[in-house]
Every structure is written in C-alpha cells, then in structure tokens.
Amino acid sequence: MDRNTSQPTSALIIAAGAGARLQNLTGPQPKPLIKILGLPLIKRIILTGKRAGIKRFVIVTGYEQENLRSALSPDSTLADCQIEWVHNDRWDLPNGVSALAAKPYFKEPFILLMADHLFDKATLEKLIVEPFGTRDCVLAIDRKIDGIYDLDDATKVRIDGELIVEINKNLQNYNAIDTGMFLCTSSLFDALESVNGPEGCSLSDGIRVLARDGRMRPFDIGEGFWQDVDTPKMLSHSEKTLLQGLTKPTDGWISRFINRPISTRITKWLVKTPITPNVVTLITFLFGLLGAGLVLDGSYWMVLVGALFFQMSSILDGCDGEVAVLTFRESKYGSWLDTITDNLTYLAFFSAIIWAYAAQNDLSVVRYLGMGSVIIVALAILVMYYYLIQTGGSGSLVRFNKAFEKHTIGRSNLIARLLNLFRMMCKRDFFTVVLFGLAALGLLSWMFWLVTVGGLCMGLAIFISTGRLLAHDRTVKQDL
Fold first, then answer.
1. Per residue in 325-344, pLDDT tens?
2. Domain 246-479 = CATH 1.20.120.1760
3. Residue 83 φ then ψ, to 5°
4. What CA–CA distance (Å, rounded) separates 378 from 382?
5. pTM attached to this predicted model
6. Would you identify the CATH topology of the domain 10-231?
7. Which tens digit of pLDDT belongs to each residue from 202-246?
8. Are 320 and 349 in contact (CB under 8 A)?
9. What are the extents of the domains in the chain?
C-alpha cells in the first residue's frame, strides 16, 4: 500500500445544519454559534484545530449562513486563520451533500470535522500524523463504549482487524463509536458521488463505500476527549467535561479535591464575562495583599480573616489559568504575571505573620530570624525564575514541578524523598490550608514557626533541586 508522506494542514468543517434539537436554546441562530463556556462552538473547534497544526479552514455553511459568517469574520482572534467559506444550497439534505460542496477546495489530504463535535488538541495532533494510504481515509473512533454519553444517539462502528467494515447509527453488532473526526483523501468525494442521488447522501454512506473496498481505516483516540453537542443535555455534559479537564497533573490533593471544584465553578461564570485572565490574576493578587494587610494587626479575628483572604486567593489562583485555557488566551506574559504576583503574595503574607508575631513578643531576634527566612524564600524564587528562563522562558511553575517529578521519580535515596516532601509542602494549596487552620485555632506562634522553618526548608529544597535539574539538562544536551 502506497503511503502518504505529507501531513494535512487544511480542514473541512461541516456547519450547514439547522440544529433543530438545540433551537429551544439557540433560537434562529445557527447551532455552531451556541456558546460553550464563553466561546461559540465553531470558534472553539477552529482554535483547537489551529493549535493542533491546521492552518486553513474551509467551512461549509447552509442554514443562516450570513449570521454564521458575520459572527466569525470580524473576530480578531481568528485573524491569522485562513478561513474560506462554501455555501451549500441543499443544506437540508444529509451531510454528505455538504462535504461534496467543498470538493473543489481540496486536492491534498485534509482533516474533516463536524461543527458540533468537540475534541482535544492532542487527539487531533495524533490523527494528523497517522500514516495512511494514498487512497484511504481514516476515521477517529472511540472504543470506550461504556463511557459514551447518550450512546443511543451515537454512530456505531464495527472494526475487523485494521479496517472499518460497517458504520450505522442503528448498528447492533459494533465495537467502537464514530467521533466525527476524519483524515481524508479525495477518495471520500468519489465515494460520496457514487451514492449521491435526489435525496442526497450522508457521510456514513460514503464511509460504507470505502469500507466495502477495504479503504476505511480506524484510528483509536485512546483516552482522548470528544463530545457531540446535539441536545441541551449534551451541551451541559460538554461543559462539565471541559471543566473537569482543567485539573493539572501537578495538582496536589487539596487542590484537586477542594480548590479545583470551587475555582471551576467561579470560572464557569467568569468565561461568560469580559473579564480577562490577567484581570483575574490581579484580583487574586489584591486578595492576597489584603490578607497580608489584615494579618499585620495581630489580633485573633484580623489574623483569621486575613488567612481566609489568603485561602481565597489560593482558590482564585486557579481561575486565571482556567479562564485562559478555556478561552484560548494563554500567553507568556500572562504566565509570568501569574507566577510573579503569586510569589509576591507569599512573601507579603509570610512577612506579615513574622511582623505580627514579633510585635507581640517584642523580640528583635525573632524578627530577624523570620525575615531571614523570607529573604531565603525570595532568593529561592529568583533561582526558580532563572531555571524557567534558562529552559524556555515560560513563566509557568508547572513546568518546573513536572521537571522535578520526572527527575526524582523512581529514586529512593533519602535526599530525593526529602526534596519531594519539601516540594509538596511548598505547594500553595497545602500551606494556605495549614495556615488558615492555625489561624482558626489562634496559634499565631505556630504560624510564625511554620513560615520561618518551612521557608528555610523550602529554600533549601529549591536550591538543591534547581541545581540538580540544571545539571541534568546540561548533561542531556551534551549527550545529544
């Protein structure tokens, strides 16, 4: 079998249907414009495709085509996307007719997407590089049948070995589900033309032709995400799944089970407002500074309320990144702003605890010891910044944490175990909860010693681990 050697950079998006089952929510507007967590459905699909490597998008319109085009054409966030429009006058016929309307626009292999199917970037990236024959087509399929939402509505697929042999929504004997993502050659158009008639043809009709000729191959998405958005319940499920996917691999237990469930609920509201991720970062920063200012008073209630504001800033700290991811507004500047303001909050809050405790005890040595610890933490933070700059320039500390985990995983020596313990204690979600608990118990002295001793341990852990990581990176580069 001859193989294609080029990777597709163009995508065909079918956006012609009326979306009748969602019209109680959309009204007369086209279904692709319904918003999912702040973004129109089709815009989310285009931006995901762009990040996966697609440069050109051919969109087939039908129902309310002018509304669809006028909604996307002036959008500055899509300015660097090459978008071409094709209108299908027979949009009320099955979707294969819409695909055929775009035939003149494709000479090379292309990706075919539905305007009402969500997917993740990683899945599309893998599909784009999937090897396939010059006359073959590939359908991304999901074998996780038990996890399919609204299985009755899904299009079923039967696979035999490395070939798709049948596809039908009412198929009884099946072992996979159609995800609505295809890697196609011009053979798809030939297959559709062979079955097109007065009543039109569906994509499934064309796939069945290719399957009979042994030219329809499956691509298993594995743990990848996709979701058809056809009904109000599917829309709600899609939003829930996207929010659940915001959990980071470096999230600690507290962040995963306490902070994230709260922050994602706030984010679900924020994405529907004009508030930008950087504004959320600054609001979070103000919460942290206000908490530090209250703690300076030193009285029980002021320390408790200050610790509460610090805890709230820890929860809100997840929102800026969540909003950025969901609305495709991540930036290098934003990551640095988030990291720097977070760390300034730590330093301000730690300094406030030390100052309040030292004022109550009128001990200069206590103040010097505590502030010395804060200085150590500040220097450690600068060392982490140095690492980030040396290894790519992005300001996200997630990269530092992932590199640390990768470097220490499987190591059983005492230093590695201690470094890992200190790293966990350095996580904001951990120490904010501990400090709030101590504030509630009125244990300002404990808060002081936790910050002082913990800051020294934090600094030590960062100094040692960063040095090891940089040495390891240099060794890898030399070996390469």
1. 999 999 989 999 999 999 99
2. yes
3. -115, 125
4. 6
5. 0.88
6. Spore Coat Polysaccharide Biosynthesis Protein SpsA; Chain A (3.90.550)
7. 999 999 999 999 999 999 999 999 999 999 999 999 999 999 999
8. no
9. 10-231, 246-479
